[in-house]
Amino acid sequence: MTHTAHFKVWRGDAEGGGLADYDIEVNEGEVVLDIIHRLQATQAPDLAVRWNCKAGKCGSCSAEINGRPRLLCMTRMSVFDPAETVTVTPMRAFPVMRDLVTDVSFNYTKAREVPAFVPPPELEPGEYRMMQEDVGRSQEFRKCIECFLCQDTCHVVRDHEENKPAFAGPRFLMRVAELDMHPLDAAAESGLDRKRTAQEEHGLGYCNITKCCTEVCPENIKITDNALIPLKERAADRKYDPLVWLGNKIRRR
Ligand code: SF4
Ligand code: F3S
Ligand code: FES
Question: Could you report the predicted ipTM of this complex, rounded to two decimals?
Answer without folding.
Answer: 0.99
